[in-house]
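Sequence only, no structure available. Ideas?
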Amino acid sequence: MAEIERVKCLIIGSGPAGYTAAIYAARANLSPVLYTGMEPGGQLTTTTDVENSLDYPDGIMGPQMMEDFRKQAERFGTDVRYELIAKGDFSGPVHKVWTESGQEIHADAVIIATGASARWLGLESEQRLRNNGVSACAVCDGFFFRGQEVAIVGAGDTAAEEATYLAKLCSKVHMLVRRDEMRASKIMQERVFKTQNIEIHWNTEAEEVLGEEVVNGLRVVNNVTGDKKELPVTALFVAIGHKPNTEVFEGWIHMNENKYIVTEPGCTRTNVAGVFACGDVQDDVYRQAVTAAGTGCMAALDAEKYLAEKGVI
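Reply:
I predicted one. Tokens follow.
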């Protein structure tokens, strides 16, 4: 059995929040160890152009942005590890976690930046055909359906962004909106409305993804009239929101009804002394890269103050 590893500052998660926390923690000589989790770089690795970041006046692709963040974190001395934290125990003054491979780590301070993951519709056919035409990442998989008809489910900014992205690749995009209005911001709605090869199906939900081995159609139902029809699509992209990745911390960290971590107003402290949370894992309102990065900075500063008061640094 591997020896127990002791670290000053453990960061769990690798999106804008995690990497920003790592940069600030490393510059404060906290010798941070960062575990990337299952999705190194977080949700931005599935995003196309990032046009609203002050750091990139000409815009940048999401994956490249996260690669830049990682390089900067490592430049200041962050130990980046590509593994998942599978278990935690925050019952004592020293916080214990275990990696998926079984390594036990004791940390004086922990920064949780595990973000959120895509939600699915819950259809049997959807799960059966995942990676065979059903996807939650238009940027990752849209290329494989160039020139074809596809469908996307969702009505928020993510759905609108992915619909316009797909419209550049595909002959037609069927956008399923379960209500008679969209939740997306006005600017994103305008982009959708102005894109000629996007057809919006209002008050419509996916009932079944058709196909045995690959997607060859989608049966939808109008939830007002009950009318059903089949769309001749070869792919279905799901963009209906996200759920916070907090399962590992249940029972230790206070969460709201939607399982987002609750932090004290004006800071990143949780109910457990020495454990901090930043980014989308504690933000169910803004969910932007810039706000995640901001709270990542806050978490590192809060952790530094905590460790100084404890006499660890």
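The longest strand covers residues 104-112.
Hope that gets you unstuck.
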